């Protein structure tokens, strides 16, 4: 879980203090953006697919109650047990109840941002359940007692030497060996034991299909498959926005997901679960936790189209230079910066301002969520909620007042131009704009307005 | 009851209705040589694709590709020695399984088999060979979803190459949890 | 054709030479251009900070000031984008008459030559400002699968001797972002540095763009760090004021 009190600019400043490391973080993630571009370039129908994905999700959200009921009905026919959770607490209680009834004391989990959102791991651990995250990146951050810093690449903020040291301590790997292949295979051997001994497996859900009552889970590692194929109990947790109407619609989404997420034509495994495995149980927990409220907000419900690919993070120039830990909400980057403020604008207001409005995220989003527009709309909620710093609010107010009086507005501009050049250095270096590495603008002697009055004003 | 509360709130908050697109209307990419596309791609994804030579059997092709072998399970055999629990497949070295169709755009193979009760085999085996009829190679996932069929037990998966991860510094490593290597045999 | 020159606040105070060049360029095509003295702020800062009511008041004021002009032309892409995309629907008449300078030259005047021939034998790296790029289609964004086009490339084909290049990460943001540059000064400077380094890595002598605020921001980084490249607004280049 993350600390709600994080303010993005402060945390980003701390992250950027190690400029070389910040550069590495930026390059590592930009590399993924480039791979995504290369995949896009191979598909002439790319923009058509994005439009279709947008339309399918928009349609689904506008009939969501019907599709959820159809999904539930069909899933039950298939022998799947369907649970509904209004919030994080109910979700956690349902999962724990299923484990407790069966005496399960070890749970293998594959990646699920929903369970991060709900704080499931600490909830279960406090009740004596051993929880093993099995996605390699998630296992790494779990062993470090950290939250994921990216929704698709949870450990992207770490260098391999740090992971080598962690595995030496936790898994007994050779001292000083930081070779990614060696470390990955050490984790494989260790986690196999957990897969084979766990009493239950929990997975997220990428898509739930109303037509078939089936679930689709996409991974590259195969951890969701092992976790759901071995233990007798498979629990799948999904936000209620994961629905799509028909199986054929996967022909659109599976073409976009991995290309957008990691620049790969598909995930290794795109697994479809329609029924419990022979001799086993399959339970699905459908979670609201604020989503049905967002659905009712005209400016924000489009964020429920999200398929959690993380492409918006990879392209975001601010995310790449500040890392996931600079954001107060569990989901960072552009999509997190609308979902977090939707949940609590006061706690997460700084996220809405961690954006230059460059709008690159709008263009990479495979379901065409107008992310940059949503961030600016979240700022309007912040303004209304009084969540802007007082000084900033006053400055914006003053700008608006001055702008009603052209002569005063010109005088204010002139004052600025005349004062800045004579500021004592101590003050010039401490303006809100000042930073080492960036000089204040040069101040011309004359404004254009003054020039015009002197040179062009008709008598 | 949470279910009814949630559904009621969704009903109250329904956005303006919009239509589903016809996903079959636009033309999508067609590959001149689907096998070449498939084979090139899977080569970068921890796998290998081949077409059986005249008179060659699947087993011969697998043996030629992976000469060193531990326990081999071929689920295409009529008398499959089924496991008693899903855990019993843990020591399998090579699994040979039927794939119903393959997809050129992403080197994926659809696996879903009635005869195999415990799908853990696909993911526990150290190496996975998937055997696909030559005529069952389609261009895109749209075509694939028009043709997929689910086995009685309701599980199916598109598998593309080997299990992999790039979670450590974006270095691509084959063999995260599932198969360390994949082979697709077109017969 | 009655043309009102819209000079964004920061251009008026900090880059008057860009507005002068814009005016002279338009006049060079024989147009009569007026500068309505009542103009102030278009409302973008209010809008971007959540003060929607304040932004709408500014937009209404903008529409009044520029009422009666056939075209409203500006040397700033960002403020033009704001008027075009974020003002109340009641102002759609105003929206459709607002043009950034290069848009106006290409779409309204359809120019095929410059008023005075310009010879500029230098390598320039194009800075594709975000709002022009993604809100007004000034070029094909690198994120999209669309045919390549670039307004700046097209207009620079009218200049003799110039050689045009793009930086690596062709259209990444420079980190100015309006009030972002003071809300998030550390990220803003880091982005500015990276962007300037990218332009400089091409070996170009100039960063050429159509949005003065991005150029001002990068100029601050260049001056503070002594980088071997200079920002140059397209209007200055097109009027032979490259100053090389």
Structure, described:
- The complex is a heterotrimer of chains A (about 450), B (about 190) and C (about 240).
- Chain A has helices spanning about 10-15, 20-40, 45-60, 65-75, 90-100, 115-120, 120-125, 135-145, 160-170, 180-195, 225-230, 250-260, 290-295, 310-315, 315-320, 335-345, 345-350, 360-365, 370-385, 390-400, 405-420, 425-430, 450-455; strands at about 80-85, 105-110, 130-135, 200-205, 205-210, 215-220, 235-240, 245, 270-275, 280-285.
- With about 450 residues, chain A is an alpha/beta fold.
- Chain A has a six-stranded parallel β-sheet, sandwiched between helices. In chain A, strands 8-5-6-9 form a four-stranded mixed β-sheet.
- In chain A, helix 9 crosses helix 10 (about 180-195), helix 16 (about 335-345) runs antiparallel to helix 17 (about 345-350) and helix 17 (about 345-350) packs across helix 19.
- The longest helix of chain A has 23 residues, at about 20-40.
- Chain A starts with 7 loop residues before the first helix and ends with a helix.
- The model of chain A has no long low-confidence stretch (mean pLDDT about 95).
- Chain B is of the alpha/beta class.
- Helix content of chain B is about 20%, strand content about 25%.
- In chain B, strands 1-11-6-3-2 form a five-stranded parallel β-sheet. A four-stranded mixed β-sheet of chain B has the order 7-4-5-8.
- By secondary structure, chain C is an alpha/beta fold.
- Chain C has 13 helices and eight strands.
- Chain C has helices spanning about 10-15, 15-30, 45-50, 50-65, 75-85, 90-95, 100-110, 130-135, 150-155, 180-185, 185-200, 210-225, 235-240, and strands at about 5, 35, 70-75, 100, 125, 165, 205-210, 230-235.
- In chain C, the strands form two sheets. In chain C, strands 2-1-3-4 form a four-stranded parallel β-sheet. In chain C, strands 6-5-7-8 form a four-stranded parallel β-sheet.
- In chain C, helix 11 crosses helix 12.
- The longest helix of chain C has 17 residues, at about 185-200.
- Chain C starts with a strand and ends in a 6-residue tail after the last helix.
- The mean pLDDT of chain C is about 95.
- Chains A and B meet through helix 2, helix 3, helix 4, helix 8 and helix 10 of A and helix 1, helix 4, helix 5, strand 8 and strand 9 of B.
